[in-house]
Write a structure and sequence with these properties.
Blueprint (H helix, E strand, L loop, with lengths): L8 E5 L3 H13 L3 E5 L2 H11 L3 E5 L7 H10 L8 E5 L4 H10 L3 E4 L4 H32 L4 H19 L8 H15 L4 H10 L12 H4 L7 H8 L1 H9 L5 H12 L20 H16 L10 H10 L11 H8 L2 H10 L3
Parallel strand pairs: 1-2, 1-3, 3-4, 4-5
Helix pairs in contact: 2-3, 3-4, 5-6, 7-8, 7-13, 7-16, 8-12, 11-12, 12-13, 13-14
């Protein structure tokens, strides 16, 4: 994947000439390639001809409004993966729900703030670039897997490890975190009696659990102080972002990775996120990786905390410290963890930062 996001192409759709000019000048000042359209019909035509990587789509337009244009873009196989940001002066809940039903990926409120506009542009282009890369690679994989070549398998697994680093590139302190993920997970899966083939899938899927962090601003990921409620709400969206990135794939590894991404922050007692699932409602893959993620986070240095040693980490997980409690974990998985303490410590020390 290229590091030069500015090579991406952006389409701005608005029937107001002043709005078009304002947004165009912002993109031009940052070196982006862009095109403009003044209504829904022209937007569809320009999308086919220009093939943008991101579309900013005004809702209130004559003839074909933004809702209808978005529906048609998302219904077309050739344009359905292009992120669409609906730009609107409408702030009511019903308008946003209607936009989501049409397939919108995000919203931007008028009058548009320059900083927010650029931040949304950068984040969505990063996600789009990663999705395109993953989709193309998976198409190649599906064709080549039929040949059952060990060379392709090795290449695929290596690519997965490289792709997972996309989510960690903003934070060097977590660079080894993804290396340890699969090792922790298969230790618990083995204790729980998983067959070897399923453990192998888990091993390669687990490192992609936080891929959705690519869509979270670095200033939030690296903030050395406690997040505000608004910042934490945004941070929590990484689970859904990750699941969306990994969805729609035929690979068993990527399918399991999607499950882990969306469910590894759910808690047995129902106080997790993003859905507040409880007990058996949580996929077992998420229940397994939840405790793995918690162990590694406690043992690792973070912008907001020092690294804890093995003994303190185990004490927090098994006895609780107010923030982390035993009730957060599936009792069977917690018991498997207690039986695997030496292996967890060995994994962290061997594959440490």
């Amino acid at each position: 994947m290229t590091d030069d996001i500015n090579r991406s192409k952006i389409l701005i759709v608005d029937d107001d000439e002043k709005n078009l000019k304002f947004l165009s000048l912002i993109l031009e000042s940052y070196g982006y390639v862009y095109e403009t359209a003044k209504d829904g019909h022209e937007a569809l035509e320009k999308t086919k001809a220009f093939n943008p990587d991101l579309i900013f789509l005004d809702i209130m337009m004559p003839e074909m409004d933004g809702y209808e244009a978005c529906k048609r873009l998302k219904a077309d196989a050739s344009t359905q993966y292009i992120p669409v940001v609906m730009v609107t002066a409408l702030a009511d809940k019903d308008s946003k729900i209607k936009g989501l039903e049409a397939g919108a990926n995000d919203f931007l409120t008028k009058p548009v703030d320059r900083s927010e506009f650029i931040a949304r542009t950068r984040n969505l282009l990063k996600v789009k670039e990663f999705e395109d890369f993953l989709r193309k690679h998976n198409e190649i994989l599906d064709a080549e897997v039929k040949k059952k070549t060990s060379q392709l398998r090795d290449s695929y697994i290596d690519t997965i490890h490289k792709l997972t680093k996309v989510a960690e590139y903003k934070d060097e302190d977590t660079a080894s975190h993804i290396k340890r993920a699969g090792h922790y997970a298969i230790v618990l899966a083995d204790k729980l009696g998983w067959p070897a083939d399923k453990r192998e899938i888990l091993f390669y899927a687990a490192p992609m659990h936080d891929i959705g962090k690519v869509g979270i601003p670095a200033e939030i990921l690296l903030k050395p102080a406690k997040l505000t409620p608004e910042e934490f709400a945004l941070m929590k969206t990484h689970a859904a972002i990750g699941a969306n990135i990994l969805s729609g794939q035929t690979s068993q590894i990527l399918h399991m990775a999607e499950i882990i991404a969306i469910s590894h922050h759910e808690r047995w007692d129902g106080n997790g996120y993003p859905k507040g699932l409880r007990e058996e409602e949580i996929p077992v893959e998420g229940r397994i990786y939840n405790i793995c993620d918690q162990y590694d986070a406690l043992r690792s240095r973070r912008p907001y905390k020092p690294a804890f040693d093995h003994s303190k980490t185990v004490k927090i997980i098994t006895e609780g410290d107010g923030r982390t409690m035993p009730s957060h974990f599936d009792p069977r998985v917690l018991e498997a963890f207690k039986e695997s303490l030496e292996e967890f410590n060995r994994i962290f020390e061997t594959l440490g930062d």
